[in-house]
Amino acid sequence: MATKIRIQKYIANCGYCARRHAELLIEAKLVSINGRPVKEMGQKIDPEKDEVSINGDIIVPPKNVTIMLHKPTKFITSTNDTHDRLTVMDLVPKQFYIDAVFPVGRLDYETEGLLIMTNNGDLSHQLAHPSFECEKEYFVEAEGKLSDKQFNRLCSGTIVVEKSIVKPAQIHEIEFKNNTTVFNMIIHEGKKRQIRKMVEAISSKVCYLRRVRMGNMELGDLPKGKYKILSETDIKNII
Questions:
Q1: One pLDDT digit (tens) per residue for the chain, 239 residues
Q2: 25-43: burial string, b at 16+ Cβ within 10 Å, e else
Q3: Measured between alpha carbons, how far is 65 from 99 in angstroms, rounded to an integer?
Q4: Pick from 84, 117, 87: nearest CA to 99
Q5: Which of 218, 70, 194 is nearest to 137 (CA)?
Q6: What is the topology classification, in CATH, of domain 66-130+217-238?
Q7: Which of 46, 143, 165, 183 is deepest in the core (most CB within 10 A)?
Q8: Phi, psi dihedrals of residue 54, rounded to the nearest 5°
């Protein structure tokens, strides 16, 4: 038996509009279930049996799509940009935009690497919400030869980012090159520019940053700027 959901959530899941706007449509008596106008805001439907229409047009959820993109630098991790810059949506087919695919979490303008994009809200929540503690691994190149004391600080759970203490990082594969230090860093949160701010907190600066893993999904040899459609098996194995 399918789980019943509130009509406004169903409308949002179809990518028609946000829940609040869906409530406005219901108040305006533009929403019908099986041909009958919706009278109660919290009315529930069975997505597998009931037919929902808005102003006479039947709406259905888009087919779930999840991809892994190798994001290059100089692209905004967003579905649009008010400053007319390139976004990750410019790297994927237009159909994904129509299917309401969106990026999960953050990769800043100067960061490249693995980016999951999906129209599956439940999957996005599991990957991005801190309560699920999805591991995110980065290849980091930082200025200078970092000391054991600096690395210990990254792993201490005492660094503040966005006014809260972040969880301890895990560091491995440390190597010194010229006047830089390269290493892999694992975090469990996804605060804005978190890696960069953590490295700044130990008196260094990130020169290069690439995300190489999210959960159990690895970037591997996927070329920069290219994407891969993930199978149901891939998706189940991410976390």
A1: 568 999 998 998 787 888 889 999 999 999 999 999 999 998 999 998 999 999 999 999 888 899 999 999 999 999 999 898 999 999 999 999 888 899 998 899 999 999 999 998 888 888 988 888 899 999 999 999 999 999 999 999 999 999 999 999 999 999 999 999 999 999 999 899 999 999 999 999 999 999 999 999 999 999 999 999 999 999 999 98
A2: bbeeebbbbeeeebeeeee
A3: 8
A4: 117
A5: 218
A6: Alpha-Beta Plaits (3.30.70)
A7: 183
A8: -125, 115
- The answer to whether the 66-130+217-238 and 135-214 domains have the same CATH topology is yes
Architecture of domain 135-214 in this structure: 2-Layer Sandwich (3.30)
Tokens found for residue 132 = 């699920």
Domain boundaries of the chain, sorted by first residue: 5-59, 66-130+217-238, 135-214
Q: For residue 79, what are the contacts with CB-CB under 8 A and spacing of at least 6?
A: 87, 89, 97, 102, 103
Q: How many CB atoms lie within 10 A of CB 236?
A: 11
Tokens of 194: 């978190």
